[in-house]
Amino acid sequence: MSTSLDSARLLAALENVAVISTTDLQGNITYANDLFCKLTGYTREELIGQPHSLVRHPAVPKATYKDMWDTIKAGNIWTGIFPNVGKGGGVYVVDTTVQPLRDDAGNIESYISIRRVINDLMENFDDVELSKEVFDEYYAK
Question: Per residue in 51-60, pLDDT tens?
Answer without folding.
Answer: 999 999 999 9
